[in-house]
Amino acid sequence: MAMPVSGLEECPECGSDLRGLPPPGRCQECGFQYDESTRVWRSRQPWQRHALVYFVIGTAIGLLLAIIYRLVRGHVPYPVFPLLFGLVYAAGGLLIRRVLTGRLSERFVAVTPKGILVGTRRRNSLIAWDDVDRVSQPKGVPKIQRHSSGVPVVLEDVFERSEDIAAFRAEVKAAKKRYANGAGNSVPDGPSARGQSG
Ligand SMILES: [Zn+2]
Known about the structure:
binds zinc ion
């Protein structure tokens, strides 16, 4: 499950231990900036979890095929056929996921003082707050709309639950207000605004 990582135990960019560095601060290894409002969402589903799901589905299909075969031919081809089918289905499923969509990357998204950081540990990019327009959610997939580009940043594999997407959208909305115009606060807060921190 994708869950907000509260209290930043480790740097989302490089994995360094941040527990000894209370916010606001900067990762000493890679320079990742954070404060008390920084939140990180990361897909918690490792490839093993995907493999297990594919295996269960594949074995169920294999079992169904064996039952149909038995009904038609009167005997079962091989007793282990459903399990073999499950293994092949899992391997194929992971391969397709990897090759076609690159979805085994464990992407993360972080709401930071500088902007929204999106990507994997090895490859990520920062969308500065003055470039962030809003987070839209067409067909349930959250997308970060930018001022500088008509192409949104799609976050299709970061969140597992709709509650996490809602929390992320709320955080982005609050952060846009919080970090607008640098440290200044020229825009008066609306009734729904959070208190200014710091
Ligand atoms: Zn770091």
